[in-house]
Amino acid sequence: MAVSLKSSGSFCSTQLQWLHSTRDRLLYGSSHSNAKECTCKKTKRPAPLCVKATSMKVELDFNDPSWKQKFQEDWDKRFNLPRITDIYDLKPRPTTFSLKKNRSPAGDENGTPMDKWNGYVNNDDRALLKVIKYSSPNSAGAECIDPDCSWVEQWVHRAGPRKEIYYEPEEVKAAIVTCGGLCPGLNDVIRQIVFTLETYGVKNIVGIPFGYRGFFEKGLKEMPLSRHLVENINLAGGSFLGVSRGGAKTSEIVDSIQARRIDMLFVLGGNGTHAGANAIHEECRKRKLKVSVVAVPKTIDNDILLMDKTFGFDTAVEEAQRAINSAYIEARSAYHGIGLVKLMGRSSGFIAMHASLSSGQVDVCLIPEVPFTLDGEYGVLRHLEHLLKTKGFCVICVAEAAGQELLQKSGATDASGNVILSDIGVHMQQKIKMHFKDIGVPADVKYIDPTYMVRACRANASDAILCTVLGQNAVHGAFAGFSGITSCICNTHYVYLPITEVITAPKRVNPNSRMWHRCLTSTGQPDFH
Ligand SMILES: Nc1ncnc2c1ncn2[C@@H]1O[C@H](COP(=O)(O)OP(=O)(O)OP(=O)(O)O)[C@@H](O)[C@H]1O
Ligand SMILES: O=P(O)(O)OC[C@H]1O[C@](O)(CO)[C@@H](O)[C@@H]1O
Ligand SMILES: [Mg+2]
User: Fold this and answer.
1) For helices 250-260 and 271-286, what crossing angle results, to 10°?
2) The two domains 164-310+459-503 and 313-456 share their CATH topology (first three levels equal)
3) Of the residues 5, 143, 162, 422, which has the fewest C-beta atoms closer than 10 A?
4) Which pLDDT band, with edges at 50, 70 and 90, does 108 fall under?
5) SS3 state of residue 466
6) Phi/psi class of residue 24: alpha, beta or left (left: φ > 0; alpha: ψ in -120 to 50)?
7) Stretch 497-523: mean pLDDT
8) Which helix (H) or strand (E) holds 328?
9) Which one of 189, 217, 273, 502 would you pick to mutate in the ligand 1 pocket, going by the greatest count of ligand atoms within 8 A of its CB?
10) What separation, in Å, do the N-terminal and C-terminal C-alpha atoms of the chain show?
11) In the Enzyme Commission scheme, what number(s) does this protein have (predicted)?
12) Does domain 313-456 have CATH number 3.40.50.460?
């Protein structure tokens, strides 16, 4: 994936053990130390007294009593939401989004109805991104900013409808596009965006077919959308508009946006799609176009930074459980049965970890964030021998990106530039069969690869609700005049984040998190190295 890391600044610390960059802490928590050493620009202290922080824009010296204030000022700048009023001098108008039927949203001449309901979100409302106060960087899963793990408030912007809006609904043309791989809930989000736009009074709503490709590929026509047309699309999986990978040419896309006179663009997709949405937002700004680009994070992999989860993840986990259950039944019923399930996750093991936890039927869970060996005294194969001896059967769940270092790389990439992974499932199946043949122990290996089944289904109840809220909030964000933002859930609250903050790297399982430890407790597996 061709996302770029942001420009770096440096942290300075008097404590030698403090070597964790901001990005590393976001990805792994404080126990995972692979930060780069550097020379602190301010104090000129040599490494390792100072650490390169990839997502900070200011230099922090923790000896400076005002470091917290500096951090917070930088934080506020980073999480400030880009608005169309940054480039235009626009006057807002009262919203047309009414919280109650049969009432004038503008209120009576005293303005009382709207004020009384308190149903609108204020632009100064914030939600806290982090709520745990860690007493030490050594606490499980700790995410600390300074060596003492001081409490620093990290506020982000609350999502929802505003009292004042920056578009005339009757004049708005809104477009929706779905990019990347399929994901349960795409249709639910499309449907809610259309419903909410219509509630504001928008009449011109279109779908762009087959991802970003629909903007420039000849013969792909935009699809007019309405409540009537999308009313039941949530009953099916997939995307009503179609998806695609690759072919993103920002300037051509923005030419097309300009030619089609699109005012609001809703972009549903993962990391790559968000990078594309941000590039479109930047290009629109450069051309001084009054266009709001709002993203909704979609991916079964759950690998987007800062948010609790992406839509589709819960459903994928639920479906994955079914595959695990089949593997369990097969293994349990066979003499020396070994059930092996490979689950998706391009760069992270969230689906494998959560499906293993929720099924309760997995003896070995392997994810890319935790290296393992197959052979040798502490290898997976020796543990399988032990499981066959002691319980007679076993179930393994392996994430598709796990153990890539054990396999030959093809070097191939897909149309979007994502690396095509080597097949760890097939490799493990062969290795297990060979191993038990070699040691003369019968083993009945059943391999299940439910790959596309976990994402080609309709959203479950919890995802359907998430999609509803995120889709509606995306429209509120556009009407509020924001652009270059994503509509997501952080710490159980619905918020807007600037896209730039969520695309610096894929989110990965923290091997020091309580969740991974719970998974290990549940499977009972040892360390495999
Ligand atoms: N850095 C980037 N800048 C602009 N566009 C990008 C960038 N990375 C990817 N894209 C475009 O975004 C679209 C989707 O990207 P990608 O195929 O990586 O899926 P994704 O959004 O990451 O979702 P998934 O979770 O299914 O992988 C593609 O059309 C791709 O060309
Ligand atoms: O085969 P496709 O459609 O390119 O997608 C495969 C990838 O898409 C995902 O489902 C979502 O990113 C990954 O888990 C998987 O690696
Ligand atoms: Mg991706």
Assistant:
1) 60
2) yes
3) 5
4) low
5) helix
6) alpha
7) 97
8) helix 313-333
9) 273
10) 30
11) 2.7.1.11
12) yes
Q: Comparing C-alpha atoms, which of 450, 342, 321, 357 is closest to residue 396?
A: 342
pLDDT tens for 65-104 read: 999 999 999 999 999 999 999 988 999 999 999 876 655 5
Choose among 522, 198, 175, 143: nearest CA to 362. 522
- ipTM value of the model? 0.99
Atom of ligand 2 nearest to the CA of 414: 4
Strand partners, 338: 394, 445
Beta carbon of 282 within 6 Å of any ligand 1 atom: no
Residue 54's pLDDT is 36
In Å, the largest CA–CA distance within the chain is 88
Class of the CATH domain delimited by 164-310+459-503: alpha beta
Give the residue from 101, 5, 12 showing the smallest Cα distance to 48. Answer: 12
Ligand 2 centroid distance, CA of 58 (Å) = 36
Question: Which residues make Cβ contacts (< 8 Å) with residue 154, sequence separation at least 6?
Answer: 75, 128, 129, 130
* Dihedral sign, Cα of residue 147, residue 148, residue 149, residue 155: negative
Q: If you write DSSP's letter for every residue of 88-124 in order, what string do you get? A: S----EE----SSTTS-TT-STT-HHHHHHT-SPPTT
The residue whose C-alpha atom lies closest to atom 1 belonging to ligand 2 is 181
What's the pLDDT at 141?
85
Q: SS3 of 342, please?
A: strand
Q: Residue 172 corresponds to which amino acid?
A: V
Domain residue ranges of the chain, discontinuous segments joined by +: 164-310+459-503, 313-456
- If you ran DSSP here, which 8-state letter would residue 35 be given? P
Query: Stretch 362-370: mean pLDDT, rounded?
Result: 98
Q: Dig out the tokens for 356 from the structure.
A: 């293993």
The C-alpha angle 450, 362, 506, rounded to 5 degrees, equals: 60
* CA atoms of 80 and 74, how far apart (whole Å): 10
What atom of ligand 1 comes closest to residue 414's alpha carbon? 17
Q: Where does residue 260 fall: left (phi above 0), alpha (psi -120 to 50 degrees), or beta otherwise?
A: alpha
